[in-house]
Design a protein that fits this description.
The protein is of the alpha/beta class. It has 3 domains: 105-265, Malic enzyme, N-terminal domain (Rossmann fold, 3-Layer(aba) Sandwich); 273-457, Rossmann fold, CATH 3.40.50; 463-544, no CATH class. The chain has 25 helices and 12 strands. It has helices spanning 8-13, 19-22, 35-41, 54-67, 71-84, 86-95, 97-104, 108-114, 116-119, 136-142, 171-184, 203-207, 221-238, 251-261, 270-290, 306-321, 326-331, 360-363, 375-382, 399-408, 428-434, 463-473, 480-491, 509-528, 537-544, and strands spanning 126-129, 150-154, 191-197, 243-246, 267-269, 299-302, 333-337, 340-341, 386-389, 413-416, 440-443, 455-456. Strands 8-7-6-9-10-11-12 form a 7-stranded mixed beta sheet, sandwiched between helices. The longest helix has 21 residues, at 270-290. The structure holds oxaloacetate ion and magnesium ion (MG). The site of magnesium ion has 4 residues, from helix 15.
Protein backbone atom coordinates (compact mmCIF):
# COMPACT_ATOMS: atom_id res chain seq x y z
CA UNK A 1 0.00 0.00 0.00
CA UNK A 2 1.47 3.34 -0.98
CA UNK A 3 1.62 6.30 1.34
CA UNK A 4 -0.40 9.22 0.06
CA UNK A 5 0.25 12.63 1.55
CA UNK A 6 -1.62 12.92 4.78
CA UNK A 7 -4.15 15.44 5.78
CA UNK A 8 -3.96 17.35 2.52
CA UNK A 9 -7.47 18.69 2.78
CA UNK A 10 -6.78 20.88 5.78
CA UNK A 11 -3.57 22.17 4.28
CA UNK A 12 -4.84 23.19 0.89
CA UNK A 13 -7.72 24.99 2.49
CA UNK A 14 -5.24 27.59 3.78
CA UNK A 15 -7.91 28.73 6.18
CA UNK A 16 -9.07 32.29 6.13
CA UNK A 17 -9.43 32.01 9.90
CA UNK A 18 -5.89 31.38 11.21
CA UNK A 19 -7.33 29.78 14.34
CA UNK A 20 -8.30 26.76 12.25
CA UNK A 21 -4.71 25.56 12.10
CA UNK A 22 -4.34 25.97 15.87
CA UNK A 23 -7.39 23.85 16.50
CA UNK A 24 -6.31 21.05 14.17
CA UNK A 25 -4.39 18.63 16.44
CA UNK A 26 -2.50 17.19 13.47
CA UNK A 27 -1.17 20.57 12.32
CA UNK A 28 -0.98 22.58 15.50
CA UNK A 29 2.50 23.27 16.91
CA UNK A 30 1.45 25.57 19.74
CA UNK A 31 4.31 27.77 20.84
CA UNK A 32 6.64 26.01 18.42
CA UNK A 33 5.31 27.86 15.37
CA UNK A 34 8.31 29.77 14.02
CA UNK A 35 8.30 33.50 13.37
CA UNK A 36 8.11 32.81 9.63
CA UNK A 37 5.11 30.54 10.13
CA UNK A 38 3.45 33.09 12.38
CA UNK A 39 3.96 35.71 9.64
CA UNK A 40 2.73 33.54 6.84
CA UNK A 41 -0.18 31.88 8.60
CA UNK A 42 -1.38 34.99 10.40
CA UNK A 43 -0.76 33.59 13.85
CA UNK A 44 0.68 36.70 15.52
CA UNK A 45 -1.44 37.73 18.43
CA UNK A 46 -2.92 34.26 18.77
CA UNK A 47 0.17 32.81 20.43
CA UNK A 48 2.32 33.96 23.32
CA UNK A 49 5.59 35.56 22.34
CA UNK A 50 8.02 32.77 23.16
CA UNK A 51 9.00 30.52 20.28
CA UNK A 52 9.65 27.06 21.64
CA UNK A 53 11.20 23.91 20.27
CA UNK A 54 9.53 20.55 20.52
CA UNK A 55 12.04 19.42 23.12
CA UNK A 56 11.34 22.54 25.17
CA UNK A 57 7.65 21.75 24.95
CA UNK A 58 8.27 18.16 26.04
CA UNK A 59 10.17 19.33 29.10
CA UNK A 60 7.43 21.78 30.04
CA UNK A 61 4.62 19.24 29.58
CA UNK A 62 6.31 16.46 31.52
CA UNK A 63 6.95 18.84 34.42
CA UNK A 64 3.30 19.94 34.44
CA UNK A 65 2.13 16.34 34.20
CA UNK A 66 4.24 15.26 37.15
CA UNK A 67 2.66 17.93 39.31
CA UNK A 68 -0.76 16.25 39.12
CA UNK A 69 -1.38 13.92 41.98
CA UNK A 70 -3.54 11.17 40.48
CA UNK A 71 -3.14 8.99 37.40
CA UNK A 72 -6.66 9.97 36.33
CA UNK A 73 -5.78 13.68 36.29
CA UNK A 74 -2.65 12.87 34.33
CA UNK A 75 -4.73 10.86 31.89
CA UNK A 76 -7.11 13.79 31.34
CA UNK A 77 -4.16 16.12 30.80
CA UNK A 78 -2.64 13.78 28.22
CA UNK A 79 -5.93 13.30 26.38
CA UNK A 80 -6.27 17.07 26.20
CA UNK A 81 -2.79 17.32 24.73
CA UNK A 82 -3.63 14.58 22.23
CA UNK A 83 -6.70 16.54 21.14
CA UNK A 84 -4.86 19.83 20.75
CA UNK A 85 -1.33 18.93 19.60
CA UNK A 86 -1.00 15.35 18.50
CA UNK A 87 2.60 15.62 17.34
CA UNK A 88 3.70 16.81 20.76
CA UNK A 89 1.59 14.12 22.44
CA UNK A 90 3.44 11.39 20.52
CA UNK A 91 6.84 13.01 20.94
CA UNK A 92 6.23 13.15 24.69
CA UNK A 93 5.07 9.53 24.73
CA UNK A 94 8.12 8.36 22.74
CA UNK A 95 10.50 10.12 25.10
CA UNK A 96 8.81 9.07 28.34
CA UNK A 97 7.12 5.84 27.34
CA UNK A 98 7.76 3.81 30.47
CA UNK A 99 6.25 6.56 32.61
CA UNK A 100 3.35 7.44 30.34
CA UNK A 101 2.23 4.05 29.02
CA UNK A 102 0.40 3.13 32.26
CA UNK A 103 -1.43 6.47 31.97
CA UNK A 104 -2.58 6.48 28.36
CA UNK A 105 -3.19 2.74 28.50
CA UNK A 106 -3.67 0.00 31.08
CA UNK A 107 -4.37 0.43 33.95
CA UNK A 108 -5.42 4.11 33.99
CA UNK A 109 -7.44 3.81 30.79
CA UNK A 110 -9.78 1.53 32.76
CA UNK A 111 -10.64 4.29 35.21
CA UNK A 112 -10.90 6.68 32.29
CA UNK A 113 -13.58 4.46 30.73
CA UNK A 114 -15.50 4.23 34.00
CA UNK A 115 -15.37 8.04 34.36
CA UNK A 116 -15.48 8.85 30.64
CA UNK A 117 -18.49 11.15 30.86
CA UNK A 118 -16.78 13.30 33.49
CA UNK A 119 -13.91 14.20 31.21
CA UNK A 120 -15.64 14.18 27.86
CA UNK A 121 -14.51 17.35 26.08
CA UNK A 122 -13.78 17.12 22.41
CA UNK A 123 -14.89 14.60 19.83
CA UNK A 124 -12.38 11.96 18.81
CA UNK A 125 -13.19 9.06 16.52
CA UNK A 126 -16.68 7.89 15.74
CA UNK A 127 -19.63 7.22 17.99
CA UNK A 128 -22.08 5.11 16.02
CA UNK A 129 -25.15 4.62 18.14
CA UNK A 130 -27.99 2.25 17.52
CA UNK A 131 -30.55 4.97 16.69
CA UNK A 132 -28.37 5.74 13.62
CA UNK A 133 -29.21 2.29 12.24
CA UNK A 134 -29.82 2.39 8.49
CA UNK A 135 -27.66 5.49 8.07
CA UNK A 136 -24.14 4.23 8.80
CA UNK A 137 -23.09 4.05 5.16
CA UNK A 138 -24.03 7.65 4.57
CA UNK A 139 -22.48 8.85 7.81
CA UNK A 140 -19.17 7.23 6.98
CA UNK A 141 -19.30 8.54 3.43
CA UNK A 142 -19.91 12.11 4.58
CA UNK A 143 -17.30 12.38 7.31
CA UNK A 144 -13.84 13.64 6.35
CA UNK A 145 -11.90 10.62 7.57
CA UNK A 146 -9.81 9.85 4.52
CA UNK A 147 -7.34 7.03 4.03
CA UNK A 148 -8.16 5.21 7.26
CA UNK A 149 -5.92 2.16 7.60
CA UNK A 150 -6.52 0.90 11.11
CA UNK A 151 -9.80 0.86 13.00
CA UNK A 152 -10.22 -0.26 16.57
CA UNK A 153 -13.83 -0.84 17.53
CA UNK A 154 -15.62 -1.76 20.74
CA UNK A 155 -19.20 -1.90 21.94
CA UNK A 156 -18.00 -1.25 25.49
CA UNK A 157 -19.51 -4.36 27.02
CA UNK A 158 -16.36 -5.92 28.50
CA UNK A 159 -13.93 -3.14 29.20
CA UNK A 160 -10.77 -4.81 30.55
CA UNK A 161 -12.07 -6.71 33.60
CA UNK A 162 -14.40 -3.83 34.45
CA UNK A 163 -17.46 -5.05 32.62
CA UNK A 164 -20.03 -2.97 30.78
CA UNK A 165 -19.02 0.68 30.49
CA UNK A 166 -21.33 1.58 27.60
CA UNK A 167 -20.11 4.60 25.62
CA UNK A 168 -17.31 5.09 28.16
CA UNK A 169 -15.66 2.14 26.46
CA UNK A 170 -14.43 4.61 23.82
CA UNK A 171 -11.36 5.14 25.98
CA UNK A 172 -10.11 1.72 24.93
CA UNK A 173 -9.99 2.16 21.12
CA UNK A 174 -8.49 5.61 21.64
CA UNK A 175 -5.77 4.13 23.86
CA UNK A 176 -5.08 1.15 21.60
CA UNK A 177 -4.71 3.35 18.54
CA UNK A 178 -2.39 5.70 20.39
CA UNK A 179 -0.15 2.68 20.81
CA UNK A 180 -0.45 1.78 17.13
CA UNK A 181 1.09 5.16 16.49
CA UNK A 182 3.57 5.19 19.35
CA UNK A 183 4.83 1.62 18.95
CA UNK A 184 4.18 0.77 15.31
CA UNK A 185 4.51 4.22 13.80
CA UNK A 186 1.09 4.23 12.16
CA UNK A 187 0.21 7.76 11.03
CA UNK A 188 -2.42 8.97 13.52
CA UNK A 189 -4.39 10.57 10.68
CA UNK A 190 -4.93 7.05 9.36
CA UNK A 191 -6.28 5.52 12.55
CA UNK A 192 -9.89 5.64 13.68
CA UNK A 193 -11.33 4.68 17.07
CA UNK A 194 -14.98 3.62 16.92
CA UNK A 195 -17.54 3.07 19.64
CA UNK A 196 -20.63 1.14 18.62
CA UNK A 197 -23.15 2.40 21.12
CA UNK A 198 -25.65 -0.39 21.35
CA UNK A 199 -26.75 0.65 24.82
CA UNK A 200 -25.59 -0.45 28.24
CA UNK A 201 -26.87 -2.75 30.93
CA UNK A 202 -24.85 -0.89 33.52
CA UNK A 203 -27.57 0.50 35.76
CA UNK A 204 -25.32 3.13 37.32
CA UNK A 205 -24.58 4.53 33.86
CA UNK A 206 -28.23 4.50 32.82
CA UNK A 207 -29.15 6.45 35.93
CA UNK A 208 -26.25 8.89 35.83
CA UNK A 209 -27.38 12.25 34.44
CA UNK A 210 -23.82 12.89 33.24
CA UNK A 211 -23.74 9.76 31.06
CA UNK A 212 -22.95 10.74 27.46
CA UNK A 213 -24.02 7.49 25.80
CA UNK A 214 -27.31 6.25 24.40
CA UNK A 215 -29.49 5.76 27.47
CA UNK A 216 -30.97 2.43 26.66
CA UNK A 217 -30.54 -1.19 27.62
CA UNK A 218 -28.32 -3.20 25.32
CA UNK A 219 -29.69 -4.26 21.97
CA UNK A 220 -29.18 -7.98 21.55
CA UNK A 221 -29.78 -10.90 19.22
CA UNK A 222 -30.73 -10.41 15.58
CA UNK A 223 -31.01 -6.61 15.91
CA UNK A 224 -27.48 -6.41 17.28
CA UNK A 225 -26.12 -8.71 14.59
CA UNK A 226 -27.80 -6.68 11.85
CA UNK A 227 -26.33 -3.45 13.22
CA UNK A 228 -22.83 -4.93 13.25
CA UNK A 229 -23.32 -6.27 9.75
CA UNK A 230 -24.38 -2.83 8.54
CA UNK A 231 -21.32 -1.37 10.23
CA UNK A 232 -18.88 -3.83 8.66
CA UNK A 233 -20.36 -3.35 5.20
CA UNK A 234 -20.12 0.42 5.58
CA UNK A 235 -16.48 0.15 6.67
CA UNK A 236 -15.58 -2.12 3.77
CA UNK A 237 -17.16 0.26 1.33
CA UNK A 238 -15.62 3.41 2.75
CA UNK A 239 -12.15 2.09 3.57
CA UNK A 240 -11.57 -1.09 1.59
CA UNK A 241 -8.64 -3.08 2.94
CA UNK A 242 -8.56 -1.27 6.30
CA UNK A 243 -7.65 -3.41 9.28
CA UNK A 244 -10.47 -3.87 11.79
CA UNK A 245 -9.50 -4.71 15.36
CA UNK A 246 -12.31 -5.94 17.61
CA UNK A 247 -11.69 -4.95 21.22
CA UNK A 248 -13.37 -5.60 24.55
CA UNK A 249 -16.58 -7.17 23.33
CA UNK A 250 -18.24 -9.52 25.80
CA UNK A 251 -17.14 -13.14 25.34
CA UNK A 252 -19.99 -14.60 23.26
CA UNK A 253 -20.09 -11.64 20.87
CA UNK A 254 -16.29 -11.56 20.67
CA UNK A 255 -16.16 -15.18 19.54
CA UNK A 256 -19.12 -14.89 17.16
CA UNK A 257 -17.91 -11.70 15.48
CA UNK A 258 -14.41 -13.04 15.02
CA UNK A 259 -15.65 -16.17 13.30
CA UNK A 260 -18.15 -14.23 11.20
CA UNK A 261 -15.72 -11.64 9.89
CA UNK A 262 -12.20 -13.08 10.00
CA UNK A 263 -12.55 -14.47 6.47
CA UNK A 264 -14.29 -11.42 5.07
CA UNK A 265 -11.81 -8.67 5.82
CA UNK A 266 -8.45 -8.17 7.54
CA UNK A 267 -9.73 -8.38 11.08
CA UNK A 268 -8.81 -9.87 14.43
CA UNK A 269 -9.94 -9.88 18.02
CA UNK A 270 -7.22 -8.52 20.26
CA UNK A 271 -8.57 -10.04 23.48
CA UNK A 272 -8.72 -13.51 21.97
CA UNK A 273 -5.84 -13.60 19.50
CA UNK A 274 -3.62 -10.74 20.68
CA UNK A 275 -3.80 -11.93 24.28
CA UNK A 276 -3.23 -15.52 23.20
CA UNK A 277 -0.10 -14.66 21.26
CA UNK A 278 1.21 -12.56 24.14
CA UNK A 279 0.58 -15.36 26.62
CA UNK A 280 2.20 -17.92 24.33
CA UNK A 281 5.23 -15.67 23.94
CA UNK A 282 5.48 -15.32 27.72
CA UNK A 283 5.25 -19.08 28.16
CA UNK A 284 7.92 -19.73 25.53
CA UNK A 285 10.20 -17.22 27.19
CA UNK A 286 9.52 -18.58 30.67
CA UNK A 287 10.02 -22.14 29.46
CA UNK A 288 13.59 -21.32 28.46
CA UNK A 289 14.19 -19.39 31.62
CA UNK A 290 12.95 -22.29 33.75
CA UNK A 291 14.89 -24.80 31.66
CA UNK A 292 11.87 -27.04 31.05
CA UNK A 293 10.19 -28.50 27.98
CA UNK A 294 6.59 -27.47 27.78
CA UNK A 295 5.46 -30.62 26.03
CA UNK A 296 6.29 -32.62 29.15
CA UNK A 297 4.26 -30.44 31.45
CA UNK A 298 0.72 -29.38 32.29
CA UNK A 299 -0.67 -25.91 31.83
CA UNK A 300 -3.62 -24.64 33.80
CA UNK A 301 -5.87 -21.88 32.48
CA UNK A 302 -7.89 -20.21 35.18
CA UNK A 303 -10.72 -18.39 33.41
CA UNK A 304 -11.83 -20.08 30.23
CA UNK A 305 -13.71 -17.28 28.51
CA UNK A 306 -12.84 -15.89 25.11
CA UNK A 307 -9.26 -14.98 26.13
CA UNK A 308 -8.53 -18.26 27.93
CA UNK A 309 -9.89 -20.30 25.02
CA UNK A 310 -7.80 -18.25 22.59
CA UNK A 311 -4.69 -19.09 24.60
CA UNK A 312 -5.65 -22.77 24.64
CA UNK A 313 -6.04 -22.85 20.90
CA UNK A 314 -2.61 -21.33 20.23
CA UNK A 315 -1.02 -23.59 22.84
CA UNK A 316 -2.44 -26.73 21.28
CA UNK A 317 -1.07 -25.57 17.92
CA UNK A 318 2.37 -25.02 19.45
CA UNK A 319 2.42 -28.43 21.13
CA UNK A 320 1.31 -30.13 17.91
CA UNK A 321 4.09 -28.33 16.06
CA UNK A 322 6.46 -30.01 18.54
CA UNK A 323 5.21 -33.43 17.51
CA UNK A 324 2.42 -34.14 19.98
CA UNK A 325 -0.81 -35.62 18.67
CA UNK A 326 -3.89 -33.43 18.90
CA UNK A 327 -5.17 -35.42 21.86
CA UNK A 328 -1.83 -35.40 23.62
CA UNK A 329 -1.57 -31.65 23.11
CA UNK A 330 -5.07 -31.11 24.50
CA UNK A 331 -4.17 -33.40 27.35
CA UNK A 332 -1.50 -30.96 28.52
CA UNK A 333 -4.08 -28.29 29.21
CA UNK A 334 -6.53 -27.93 32.05
CA UNK A 335 -9.20 -25.25 32.20
CA UNK A 336 -10.88 -24.09 35.39
CA UNK A 337 -13.80 -21.70 35.15
CA UNK A 338 -16.71 -20.65 37.36
CA UNK A 339 -17.96 -24.23 37.78
CA UNK A 340 -14.55 -25.70 38.46
CA UNK A 341 -12.46 -27.93 36.21
CA UNK A 342 -14.01 -28.06 32.75
CA UNK A 343 -15.09 -31.61 32.04
CA UNK A 344 -16.68 -33.01 28.88
CA UNK A 345 -20.41 -33.57 29.24
CA UNK A 346 -20.45 -31.90 32.65
CA UNK A 347 -19.84 -28.17 32.52
CA UNK A 348 -18.69 -27.06 29.07
CA UNK A 349 -20.29 -23.62 28.90
CA UNK A 350 -19.07 -22.18 25.58
CA UNK A 351 -17.89 -23.89 22.37
CA UNK A 352 -14.26 -22.78 22.83
CA UNK A 353 -14.03 -24.77 26.07
CA UNK A 354 -14.54 -28.08 24.24
CA UNK A 355 -10.86 -28.03 23.24
CA UNK A 356 -9.66 -28.15 26.83
CA UNK A 357 -12.45 -30.13 28.49
CA UNK A 358 -11.05 -33.18 30.30
CA UNK A 359 -12.56 -36.52 29.24
CA UNK A 360 -15.32 -37.52 31.63
CA UNK A 361 -13.75 -40.93 32.22
CA UNK A 362 -10.47 -39.38 33.34
CA UNK A 363 -12.28 -36.98 35.62
CA UNK A 364 -14.67 -39.57 37.07
CA UNK A 365 -12.66 -40.04 40.22
CA UNK A 366 -12.34 -36.27 40.62
CA UNK A 367 -16.09 -35.97 40.42
CA UNK A 368 -16.60 -38.46 43.22
CA UNK A 369 -17.43 -35.62 45.54
CA UNK A 370 -20.23 -34.72 43.12
CA UNK A 371 -18.60 -31.49 42.09
CA UNK A 372 -15.95 -30.55 39.58
CA UNK A 373 -12.71 -29.74 41.43
CA UNK A 374 -11.82 -26.11 41.93
CA UNK A 375 -8.54 -24.31 41.31
CA UNK A 376 -6.48 -25.54 44.22
CA UNK A 377 -7.62 -29.15 43.94
CA UNK A 378 -6.81 -29.13 40.22
CA UNK A 379 -3.34 -27.78 40.93
CA UNK A 380 -2.75 -30.47 43.53
CA UNK A 381 -3.80 -33.24 41.19
CA UNK A 382 -2.42 -32.03 37.85
CA UNK A 383 0.72 -30.34 39.20
CA UNK A 384 0.89 -27.81 36.36
CA UNK A 385 4.15 -26.01 35.61
CA UNK A 386 2.24 -23.01 34.26
CA UNK A 387 -0.74 -21.16 35.74
CA UNK A 388 -2.45 -18.47 33.67
CA UNK A 389 -5.22 -16.18 34.90
CA UNK A 390 -7.74 -14.55 32.56
CA UNK A 391 -10.63 -14.67 35.01
CA UNK A 392 -10.96 -11.05 36.10
CA UNK A 393 -11.17 -12.39 39.68
CA UNK A 394 -9.13 -10.24 41.97
CA UNK A 395 -6.95 -12.22 44.35
CA UNK A 396 -7.90 -15.65 42.99
CA UNK A 397 -4.22 -16.68 43.09
CA UNK A 398 -4.00 -16.53 46.85
CA UNK A 399 -1.32 -17.91 49.13
CA UNK A 400 -2.46 -21.58 49.08
CA UNK A 401 -2.70 -21.49 45.27
CA UNK A 402 0.77 -20.03 44.81
CA UNK A 403 2.27 -22.36 47.42
CA UNK A 404 0.66 -25.35 45.70
CA UNK A 405 2.21 -24.25 42.40
CA UNK A 406 5.60 -23.79 44.03
CA UNK A 407 5.49 -27.16 45.77
CA UNK A 408 6.00 -29.22 42.61
CA UNK A 409 8.21 -26.99 40.53
CA UNK A 410 11.49 -25.28 41.15
CA UNK A 411 10.43 -22.37 38.94
CA UNK A 412 6.65 -22.30 38.61
CA UNK A 413 5.39 -19.99 35.85
CA UNK A 414 2.56 -17.81 37.12
CA UNK A 415 0.83 -15.30 34.87
CA UNK A 416 -2.07 -13.34 36.40
CA UNK A 417 -3.12 -11.58 33.19
CA UNK A 418 -6.44 -9.93 34.06
CA UNK A 419 -6.65 -6.15 33.85
CA UNK A 420 -6.55 -3.68 35.46
CA UNK A 421 -4.79 -4.28 38.78
CA UNK A 422 -8.11 -4.29 40.64
CA UNK A 423 -9.09 -7.38 38.62
CA UNK A 424 -5.74 -9.12 38.66
CA UNK A 425 -5.60 -12.65 40.08
CA UNK A 426 -2.54 -11.67 42.15
CA UNK A 427 0.07 -9.00 42.60
CA UNK A 428 3.62 -9.75 41.59
CA UNK A 429 4.84 -9.01 45.11
CA UNK A 430 2.55 -11.62 46.65
CA UNK A 431 3.42 -14.27 44.09
CA UNK A 432 7.07 -13.59 44.70
CA UNK A 433 6.72 -13.81 48.47
CA UNK A 434 4.54 -16.91 48.50
CA UNK A 435 6.82 -18.77 46.10
CA UNK A 436 9.92 -17.79 48.09
CA UNK A 437 11.11 -15.81 45.12
CA UNK A 438 11.11 -18.83 42.81
CA UNK A 439 8.14 -18.05 40.54
CA UNK A 440 8.58 -16.66 37.04
CA UNK A 441 5.92 -13.96 36.92
CA UNK A 442 4.13 -11.94 34.26
CA UNK A 443 1.17 -9.66 34.95
CA UNK A 444 -1.35 -8.11 32.56
CA UNK A 445 -1.07 -4.64 34.08
CA UNK A 446 2.17 -3.02 35.18
CA UNK A 447 2.96 -4.56 38.51
CA UNK A 448 3.89 -2.92 41.72
CA UNK A 449 5.65 -4.83 44.43
CA UNK A 450 7.80 -6.89 42.09
CA UNK A 451 11.54 -6.56 41.98
CA UNK A 452 11.63 -4.93 38.57
CA UNK A 453 11.98 -8.23 36.73
CA UNK A 454 8.23 -8.69 36.49
CA UNK A 455 7.15 -8.49 32.91
CA UNK A 456 3.97 -6.82 31.80
CA UNK A 457 2.49 -9.60 29.70
CA UNK A 458 0.09 -7.40 27.80
CA UNK A 459 -1.11 -7.53 24.21
CA UNK A 460 0.59 -4.19 23.53
CA UNK A 461 3.59 -6.43 22.78
CA UNK A 462 1.64 -7.99 19.91
CA UNK A 463 -1.19 -5.96 18.35
CA UNK A 464 0.80 -2.95 17.04
CA UNK A 465 3.17 -5.27 15.20
CA UNK A 466 0.33 -7.39 13.85
CA UNK A 467 -1.27 -4.27 12.40
CA UNK A 468 2.00 -2.93 11.01
CA UNK A 469 2.86 -6.26 9.40
CA UNK A 470 -0.60 -6.56 7.90
CA UNK A 471 -0.39 -3.08 6.38
CA UNK A 472 3.13 -3.46 5.05
CA UNK A 473 2.40 -6.84 3.48
CA UNK A 474 -1.05 -5.82 2.26
CA UNK A 475 -2.45 -8.94 3.92
CA UNK A 476 -6.10 -9.44 3.13
CA UNK A 477 -6.61 -11.69 6.16
CA UNK A 478 -5.13 -11.95 9.64
CA UNK A 479 -4.39 -15.62 10.15
CA UNK A 480 -3.81 -17.85 13.19
CA UNK A 481 -0.31 -18.57 11.86
CA UNK A 482 0.52 -14.88 12.10
CA UNK A 483 -0.21 -14.92 15.82
CA UNK A 484 1.79 -18.11 16.35
CA UNK A 485 4.80 -16.66 14.52
CA UNK A 486 4.40 -13.30 16.24
CA UNK A 487 4.55 -15.08 19.60
CA UNK A 488 7.77 -16.85 18.66
CA UNK A 489 9.28 -13.63 17.35
CA UNK A 490 8.43 -11.84 20.59
CA UNK A 491 9.80 -14.67 22.72
CA UNK A 492 13.05 -14.57 20.74
CA UNK A 493 13.66 -11.03 22.01
CA UNK A 494 14.19 -12.13 25.60
CA UNK A 495 17.60 -11.02 26.72
CA UNK A 496 19.84 -13.71 28.13
CA UNK A 497 21.19 -11.29 30.68
CA UNK A 498 20.25 -13.39 33.69
CA UNK A 499 17.16 -11.41 34.64
CA UNK A 500 13.70 -12.92 34.94
CA UNK A 501 12.24 -10.48 32.41
CA UNK A 502 10.23 -12.35 29.77
CA UNK A 503 9.95 -9.48 27.27
CA UNK A 504 12.06 -6.43 26.51
CA UNK A 505 11.18 -3.34 28.60
CA UNK A 506 8.46 -1.03 27.33
CA UNK A 507 11.06 1.49 26.11
CA UNK A 508 11.76 -1.01 23.34
CA UNK A 509 8.17 -1.43 22.15
CA UNK A 510 8.93 0.19 18.78
CA UNK A 511 11.60 -2.44 18.06
CA UNK A 512 9.26 -5.13 19.30
CA UNK A 513 6.57 -3.94 16.86
CA UNK A 514 9.08 -4.09 13.99
CA UNK A 515 10.08 -7.64 14.90
CA UNK A 516 6.48 -8.79 15.20
CA UNK A 517 5.59 -7.03 11.94
CA UNK A 518 8.41 -8.82 10.14
CA UNK A 519 7.12 -12.19 11.28
CA UNK A 520 3.64 -11.26 10.03
CA UNK A 521 5.01 -10.19 6.63
CA UNK A 522 6.79 -13.50 6.29
CA UNK A 523 3.61 -15.44 7.01
CA UNK A 524 1.73 -13.24 4.53
CA UNK A 525 4.38 -14.05 1.94
CA UNK A 526 4.35 -17.78 2.69
CA UNK A 527 0.62 -18.31 3.10
CA UNK A 528 -1.12 -15.48 1.29
CA UNK A 529 1.22 -14.85 -1.62
CA UNK A 530 2.31 -11.36 -0.51
CA UNK A 531 5.25 -10.08 -2.53
CA UNK A 532 8.18 -8.57 -0.65
CA UNK A 533 9.57 -5.30 -2.01
CA UNK A 534 12.90 -5.51 -3.82
CA UNK A 535 14.80 -4.26 -0.78
CA UNK A 536 13.07 -6.63 1.64
CA UNK A 537 10.37 -6.47 4.31
CA UNK A 538 12.61 -4.85 6.93
CA UNK A 539 13.10 -1.75 4.81
CA UNK A 540 9.43 -1.59 3.93
CA UNK A 541 8.61 -1.68 7.64
CA UNK A 542 11.14 1.03 8.47
CA UNK A 543 9.91 3.25 5.63
CA UNK A 544 6.38 3.21 6.90
CA UNK A 545 7.10 4.69 10.28
CA UNK A 546 5.43 8.01 11.04
CA UNK A 547 7.61 10.00 13.39
CA UNK A 548 6.33 12.66 15.77
CA UNK A 549 8.13 15.68 14.37
CA UNK A 550 6.56 18.95 13.37
CA UNK A 551 5.89 19.39 9.69
CA UNK A 552 8.14 21.90 8.04
CA UNK A 553 6.03 22.26 4.92
CA UNK A 554 3.34 24.54 6.29
CA UNK A 555 4.88 27.57 4.58
CA UNK A 556 4.99 26.10 1.11
CA UNK A 557 1.31 25.38 0.91
CA UNK A 558 -0.83 27.57 -1.26
O1 LIG B 1 -6.10 -3.47 27.28
C1 LIG B 1 -5.29 -4.23 27.89
O2 LIG B 1 -4.48 -3.86 28.71
C2 LIG B 1 -5.28 -5.70 27.53
C3 LIG B 1 -6.58 -6.05 26.98
O3 LIG B 1 -6.83 -6.02 25.79
C4 LIG B 1 -7.68 -6.30 27.93
O4 LIG B 1 -7.43 -6.51 29.11
O5 LIG B 1 -8.83 -6.26 27.47
MG1 LIG C 1 -8.88 -5.64 25.42
Amino acid sequence: MDQTPMHEASLTKNPADPRAILSDPLLNKGTAFTQAERDRLGLHGLLPSHVSTISGQIDRRIAVLRAFSTPFEKYAFLRDLQDTNETLFYALLAQHRAELLPLVYTPTVGEACVRFSEIYRRPRGLFLSYPLKGRLRQILADLPFEDVEVICVTDGERILGLGDQGAGGMGIPIGKLSLYTDCAGIDPARTLPILLDTGTDNQARLENPLYVGWRNRRVRGADYDAFIEEFVEAVQERWPGALLQWEDFAGPNAVALLSRYRDRLPSFNDDIQGTAATALAAILSAERLAGINLSQHKILLFGAGAAGCGIASLLVGELEARGLSHDAARGCIYGVDRDGLIIEGVNVAIPGQALIARPEAEAAEWLASGKAPGLIETIERAQPAVLIGTSGQFGAFDEPVVRAMAQHHERPIILPLSNPGTRSEATAGDVQAWSDGRAIIGTGSPSEGGDGAVTQVNNVYIFPGIGLGALVSGATRITEAMFAEAAKALASLRSEGGSDALFPPSEQLADVANTVALSVCKVAERDLGATPPADGWENAIARRRWVPAYRDDLLSVE
